[in-house]
Amino acid sequence: MPVTPEPISRSTPEADLESSVSWQTTLSLFLAAVLGAALALWILPHWLPALFSDIAAQKAYWHLARSSGIVAYLLLWVSTALGLLITNRMARAWPGGPTTFDLHQFASLLALGFTAFHAIILLGDEYIGYTFLQILIPFAATGYKPVATALGQIAFYLAAIISFSFYVRNRIGRRAWRTLHYASFLIFLLITVHGLFAGTDTATLWPLYLASAASILFLTLYRILITRIQKPHFTHTPKRSTR
Ligand code: HEM
């Protein structure tokens, strides 16, 4: 029996998905990360001076900055991959569009929190010696790897814009929102270069950067191919002869 092909939906699969994370939750998560960093930087050293009096404290800030940077990177990788799984429709097989969408959003919001912590906790690292303004403004810091650091800062601002744009999606229009989302590819590129060139652990972490970049490339190519294959083909019907 001939199998009738499923009609191709022309609406994008993500267009109808709704967020289950309110902007208040997003803001609380972000503020919690900032407060956590402030607590580690200013309150704990005053509260427990003995613990923070020696060189171990310096190393603690360094370790905290590196580990939170790596967690932020992993989360942004996962978030980018999940976003692609939605648009290339692989997520339909498992675990389903809405679940993937929620995971995608949670991962990107958590990444923002970890990145805020990653940047602020660097204020405790005397070797790097950043000021608060240098943390905020790309290229303002000239001491420690300024270009590689600036790429991370730009990625953070772009990621924040994309994550928060969800809450104004209906105002700016879905088309503009989707166009904005294309910056995710740039963000992934920026954080990969940032991690590779700013980090202390590049020598041991390069397999992670390689694997993550390869997986994003694969999912992107798959998405491009699937979009081309699923585009409705308009066959040329020759005009009937008037003979
Ligand atoms: C989405 C944004 C960001 C991500 C995913 C990210 C991720 C990372 C990763 C994975 C590392 C490498 C850790 C290592 O190998 O030791 C790193 C290092 C670093 N990041 Fe970021 N980062 C981001 C934003 C920022 C921002 C906003 C700053 C602001 C100043 C910053 C400053 C640094 C510095 C100075 C290092 C070197 C730390 C060290 O190894 O001593 N990053 N980051």
Q: What is the number of domains?
A: 1
What proportion strand? under 5%
| Small-molecule components bound | protoporphyrin IX containing FE
Query: C-alpha Rg, in Å?
Result: 23 Å
Oligomeric state of shown chains: single chain
Q: What coarse outline follows from CA principal-axis ratios?
A: globular
Distance between the termini: 39 Å
Number of helices: 9
Helix content: 55-70%
How do the helices and strands line up, and which of them pair or pack?
Layout: H1 23-47, H2 55-87, H3 97-121, H4 132-136, H5 146-165, H6 169-172, H7 174-181, H8 183-198, H9 202-230
Protoporphyrin IX containing FE is lined by residues 62, 65-66, 69-70, 72-73, 76, 115, 118-119, 122, 128, 135, 144, 149, 152-153, 155-156, 159, 191, 194-195, 198-202, 205.
Comma- or semicolon-separated keywords:
single chain; 243 residues; mainly alpha; 9 helices; globular; disordered N terminus; binds protoporphyrin IX containing FE
Polypeptide structure, described:
The protein is mostly helical and 243 residues long. It has one domain (23-41, 54-229). The protein is built from nine helices and no strands. It has helices spanning 23-47, 55-87, 97-121, 132-136, 146-165, 169-172, 174-181, 183-198, 202-230. The longest helix is centred in the N-terminal third of the chain and has 33 residues, at 55-87. It starts with 22 loop residues before the first helix and ends in a 13-residue tail after the last helix. 26% of the residues are buried.
